[in-house]
């Protein structure tokens, strides 16, 4: 029996971080996905990208894959926690309608980045997904690899309170975790980034320190409250003008602003639900306007 | 006669749903067969993470032929009636026969229904089962509208050696399945259940969950033995893990012993709940050992080394988190957390956690007076600190260790054992089988916590309705009942509830307009109409499980007592008494007296609850009864005052013979009106005497 105490060193044969990312892009491009670049706005999860949220609605087929940088201000640890980051990457795949062989396709992607299913224990463990801010839910799993959660796998049932017909299958890879698993490192900052000497820490450690300080200490809360209000108003105005896409950007903005306010600790427990409710109302409004704009039946 | 084999292969079914799903599958299919008139020998259902399988043996190939005779209208009935009958029966005029009966001549139709092929019945039943399956949650997928727990991939359906023709939203039934997702993914054909089971086994799938469990238990035990530690069996976890793997391969992993300084409850929680690991213990000391057993779903080509290493790294990262919180939390004092309880809303209508804690503290101090050996200052201190761990880093991260962490942190800041234990125990008992606290300070705080919950939510009209009990008030009431009765605490419940409600007044303006008086009135009626009856109901449910008759509890509760210990003592004495000969006869005598009184009082429109004129007693039996009543009544009351319920029952039992003799010899409804009235008064005295002990009118039988 092998003693599994953590003495692992970086696996020299494993893919560097960026190679993994490129490999996933190529793999899903080969499956017919549109490869998008990250959305140019701050957001808490790749699901917020309109290529997922809005494209999951309506009858038209859609396949896309993209990297999305995610901002989670409350998860910032000034670069001192080996696994928690306020900025990290998700790799997001959306397949609509979800194909019958989606699990096989997903497992194929793991194989492509060097996870051997004959060596590692891959498991689909029940995890139902719900986003209160997007008014969305689905059923699926978290995918475990040797006990570590490496992806979220969801069949969307509703987005913005509307039934998804057809159903989209969503895959979300936590890229840093996956890379830590593949490379066998215990500290995210030790990840080999490019295979040519740069580590994840070289690229992002200072960013984590400064952004954590901003999120927790310096973000101007008066301005943020004003921003939140402004985004809400702007969104409503754009919805009236039947412009769901720019309206949805204001929804994304208000969601991130709320996350920043939350990190600053200025939103009480009771107010929290009310704020989430306000963002959800915007998201629902955008989804509804998007459906109308496209002339789809509700 | 043939055997049926069905397999529904899908993407991964949540472990917690598998057992019920296989039971439901069997139930739905066998019910459908029975409804079609089909018998069978044995039905057995199985579940794995990817499949539900069902085998039913010895089913006839056809449903029985049915010939049925149906009576139609009379021969002289209007033509329309006859047409309707023929349409309904599916027969023509020349197939009818006329037959004479007592009430006239009627048309009769003989309907012959030939049996149907069983395969048809199976196809229909399976389609209906799939479409109506009671999954707790189900989903659509792709562009279809069928719902299943996760996407349904294929259906295998064999009756005898033939595939049953069936197509559910494009999924056609066949005779193939697949093995283990990674070790044997190719499709293969099967011929019957035995073949199916064997080939699955060869394809690295153990079909029977019981066998998977046995395999896990055996291997886990052996691994632990080899490591020199003891495997800690956990039935719930075993069930869950057996639902996560088709081919269980337990592996032993280890973590750095330096994590052992973190409280073991947290280590266990992390391993068990987050990672589904079994924990191990040192064989000698019984202390947690730094080795765990994970159950993989794979015979890995390296013997599981990579899997064990990977799992070891995951648990190390998680334990590092836990250790970080433990160390962080210990840097401050538990009581330093108290101001933060202001930031937690307990319930929007019942204030913040800090308000709740203030109420609990006052209540615990008051309750301490009723609990033997309970120091009020300690009870107040424990209540004050009981919720302080909710804002600790550890409980924020691992909510399940609330209370447990509070105890550690309380000890760390030098609180007494009694206070620290009470912080840990104040959520208990969490159910009928949970351990009930017995240490005095723990009992006081646990009671205060639950009473504050009950009084608060009842006061704002958030009572449980039907199956909805979002604030777990039934559990809280059961907790109060268990804490009081199992510790023999003599508590005037109604008084305590009133006291607990006092600090709620500021919150109740919404529920009772009109100031303080209106609020008090609202509370009073709420308690009388809802909360005390709620306790009575919960007590009945709890005692029913212990075999106590609910009508006896009603009979004693009707006396208006709110001391649960006294109530149960009285119920116990009453129950024993009614099981005796004297008791059952007395009850019969009581019922007879009460019935006569009810009838006569109704007839006369007046009550006979009055004293007996001794001078007007004529027959020796009525005199004897009057004497016995006076004595028994006095004895019973005396005994009740001393809470000697057996003695009170014994006093009542002296009434049996005089009552029997009375009914034997004396005519109550005498012609002489005065005599009759006096005898009815005598009956009313029986009723009164017996009712001092319990309301006998509520006793059944």
TrEMBL record, chain A:
<keyword id="KW-0436">Ligase</keyword>
<keyword id="KW-0067">ATP-binding</keyword>
<dbReference type="GO" id="GO:0005829">
    <property type="term" value="C:cytosol"/>
</dbReference>
<keyword id="KW-0030">Aminoacyl-tRNA synthetase</keyword>
<dbReference type="InterPro" id="IPR006194">
    <property type="entry name" value="Gly-tRNA-synth_heterodimer"/>
</dbReference>
<dbReference type="InterPro" id="IPR002310">
    <property type="entry name" value="Gly-tRNA_ligase_asu"/>
</dbReference>
<keyword id="KW-0963">Cytoplasm</keyword>
<keyword id="KW-0648">Protein biosynthesis</keyword>
<dbReference type="GO" id="GO:0005524">
    <property type="term" value="F:ATP binding"/>
</dbReference>
<dbReference type="Pfam" id="PF02091">
    <property type="entry name" value="tRNA-synt_2e"/>
</dbReference>
<dbReference type="GO" id="GO:0006426">
    <property type="term" value="P:glycyl-tRNA aminoacylation"/>
</dbReference>
<protein>
    <recommendedName>
        <fullName>Glycine--tRNA ligase alpha subunit</fullName>
        <ecNumber>6.1.1.14</ecNumber>
    </recommendedName>
</protein>
<keyword id="KW-0547">Nucleotide-binding</keyword>
<comment type="similarity">
    <text>Belongs to the class-II aminoacyl-tRNA synthetase family.</text>
</comment>
<comment type="subunit">
    <text>Tetramer of two alpha and two beta subunits.</text>
</comment>
<dbReference type="GO" id="GO:0004820">
    <property type="term" value="F:glycine-tRNA ligase activity"/>
</dbReference>
<dbReference type="InterPro" id="IPR045864">
    <property type="entry name" value="aa-tRNA-synth_II/BPL/LPL"/>
</dbReference>
From TrEMBL, chain B:
<protein>
    <recommendedName>
        <fullName>Glycine--tRNA ligase beta subunit</fullName>
        <ecNumber>6.1.1.14</ecNumber>
    </recommendedName>
</protein>
<feature type="domain" description="DALR anticodon binding">
    <location>
        <begin position="588"/>
        <end position="690"/>
    </location>
</feature>
<dbReference type="GO" id="GO:0006426">
    <property type="term" value="P:glycyl-tRNA aminoacylation"/>
</dbReference>
<keyword id="KW-0030">Aminoacyl-tRNA synthetase</keyword>
<keyword id="KW-0547">Nucleotide-binding</keyword>
<comment type="subunit">
    <text>Tetramer of two alpha and two beta subunits.</text>
</comment>
<dbReference type="GO" id="GO:0005829">
    <property type="term" value="C:cytosol"/>
</dbReference>
<dbReference type="InterPro" id="IPR015944">
    <property type="entry name" value="Gly-tRNA-synth_bsu"/>
</dbReference>
<dbReference type="Pfam" id="PF05746">
    <property type="entry name" value="DALR_1"/>
</dbReference>
<dbReference type="GO" id="GO:0004814">
    <property type="term" value="F:arginine-tRNA ligase activity"/>
</dbReference>
<keyword id="KW-0963">Cytoplasm</keyword>
<dbReference type="InterPro" id="IPR006194">
    <property type="entry name" value="Gly-tRNA-synth_heterodimer"/>
</dbReference>
<dbReference type="GO" id="GO:0006420">
    <property type="term" value="P:arginyl-tRNA aminoacylation"/>
</dbReference>
<keyword id="KW-0436">Ligase</keyword>
<dbReference type="GO" id="GO:0004820">
    <property type="term" value="F:glycine-tRNA ligase activity"/>
</dbReference>
<keyword id="KW-0067">ATP-binding</keyword>
<comment type="similarity">
    <text>Belongs to the class-II aminoacyl-tRNA synthetase family.</text>
</comment>
<keyword id="KW-0648">Protein biosynthesis</keyword>
<dbReference type="InterPro" id="IPR008909">
    <property type="entry name" value="DALR_anticod-bd"/>
</dbReference>
<dbReference type="GO" id="GO:0005524">
    <property type="term" value="F:ATP binding"/>
</dbReference>
<dbReference type="Pfam" id="PF02092">
    <property type="entry name" value="tRNA_synt_2f"/>
</dbReference>
